[in-house]
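Entry type: protein chain
Record version: 2
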Amino acid sequence: MPMLPRRPLATAVALLLFVASFAGADIKSHTPALHAKTCCSVGPIDYHGWSGSFQMSNGLVTVTVVPAIGRVMQFRFAGEERGPFFENRALDGKPPDPAATEWVNFGGDKTWPAPQDDWPKLTPRKWPPPPTFDSVPLKYELKNSTVSKSSMAPFGAKADAIELTSPVDPSYGIRARRIITLEPGKPVMTIRTIYEKVQGEPVKVGVWVITQLGEPQKAGMVLPAKSQYPEGYNKQMEVLPANLKREGRLVSVTRDPKNPTKIGSDASTLVWIDKDFYLQIDSPRVAGAEYPDQGSSAEIYTNPDPLHYIELETLGPLQTMKVGDKIERTNQYTLMHRVEGEKRLKDLSH
């Protein structure tokens, strides 16, 4: 990948001050927010060296949110030590570096602006991703989603949602917000990702959500009844994924240990299965809308050794945003044990 040009000292200092101003507030003195009439408890934790993190639970599943690196880092069954999300434990406790010329890949779930091909047109670099979307701490608020989507919940008062907010990206003029909730009595997490155009010239962009997951036994895309792609997918890298096959409406792959691979499709549902768990991500496609990456609303990337992970990615429609505009994408994540998940997948793919 091309190297990021060296920044003048004054620019670097300004950037560091800009990032520091968005670090989350100190929460060590706060107590968990819990209320008998809400579905969830939300409390502060120190997560693998990142202070100012949160854990949300509805009694069935837990979600770990780390504002310090701007990610939802894990989604697992309550009481389980392991969950499906990939976490790069070699980076535990490290801060993000917006000036890094190599990608600092923490893992977890995050958002980038689509399409990726436009990054070098709008930002100083082709890779790594735009730092405001990927490599800065995010502000957080604990909220009560049952009262109002915008009402802030003070600590100790009915909090059942976490909202992360980025600074305004200087290249896109966009602020990203992510609202994380759990469904009462179900192993289901919902993340609303909202882009707000705050400043600058109009820009054509879509919401892109990237979920990094551990080594699967199988990952797949559940196609619509009639896919726009003859084979059910489009090829986005030189090498196709390992064990690529289509069975009914399911296009499935495994991770290639030697090559990076990526395919896209017009699916609204992505799935991941390992020996214990099944994760399903649903993000409905909008009929008739323009999508990036050869018209893709869903993509699967598989990473070669030594990091054993894949990405399930959802993409929203492209829209030319001007100041005052908002676009959003909602992802629903359903976690099941493998046996139950395989039954679900069988029903979905036929």
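Comment: The chain has one domain: 34-348.
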